[in-house]
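fyi for ur records
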Amino acid sequence: MDFQPSEAELRFQQEIRATLAACLPPDIRARAERSALFSADDFRRWLAALDAHGLAAPNWPTAYGGRDWTPTQRLIFGRELGALPAPWVYPFNIAMIGPVICAFGSDAMKQRFCAPLRDGSILFCQGFSEPGAGSDLVSLRTSAVRDGDDLIVNGQKIWTSYAHISDWIFLLARTETNPKPQQNLSILLIDMKSPGVTVRPIVSIDGQHHLNEVFFEDVRVPADNLVGQPGDGWTQAKFLLGHERTTIAGIPEAQREFRALQAFARSGDFGPLADCDWHAREATRLEARLEALNMLEARTALDPEMQGLHFASMLKVAGTEVQQQIDDFAIRILGPGIGGVAPESVRPGGNPAEPGLPGTAALAGRFFYRRAATIYGGTSEIQRNVIARALFAEAGERA
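which gave:
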């Protein structure tokens, strides 16, 4: 699909671009340009600034703070937001548990959580993966057993991003005893300050602490914190994963990084490299992949027939692979002695690299961490299975 916005949509794009630029606090923007790790305060302030303009959760239903935009306007907003050097719009709040609460939560739960999710008053983390149950979530072992008005939770979660700064966790646990395992699961909302919750840090290969193990030992959770009906967790999880995988694709962010890398390669120090055959070939290949992703994203957003879970899987597979390819391209350009993998970022001649350019020392951390991009949110192998099943089903219907 060739996305060609109308004049009115172009005006909308300019308005959104100006509003987003005005919303972004300068100190947070500066950290984003240095690829620094963001604090809880950064996420809260960014959410609050967006929410003040009604832009924290425009894709939510209007009754819960969303905007009555057309699909094209939503696509434009997502692209403009992703193109900013800014933190995530905290996806655990906005792209994951928020839509689940809007779709499946009780009225009391919506009243309690929707506004704080939007303005950053509370931050959630995601408790899905377990040791031995990553992409195969149906095999998870964390249990939530009814005890009067409460549920008693026992188990362990792993690779829990930002659990150490989060106020709450949304947790997938086994609550039922149905012979069909998919009907045994429920999503619970748990206060991280509850007695029996323990968070242990995991320092990842980029040297940063954003991952954690979370342990639950006889954690007492009010039954009202169960989302929807007991046993509906698998349906809710699939709904959530569709939102998560589209977010993980990170297409606008990848385009921004590629443009910065190209500008750097054409600068005074790297001008000859930008003209060599290898660079031209690799850059053209990446540019073509990004354009194809742009088209797939537009079709997925604008064509109702392409809004199934497997199209989110397509975006996730293709988007994360391109992220890795861009980082690999950057490392090969910069080399080990030019800040790509060196502790300090130095451009030729001994001058420190400018903030935000791919020559910063942060590139090495990003390169290493993104080895996991084709794993988290569901491995590429699992996504291809999802796509294949959908295509076989469609072929069977046409036969």
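Residues 277-302 form the longest helix (26 residues). thats all i got for now
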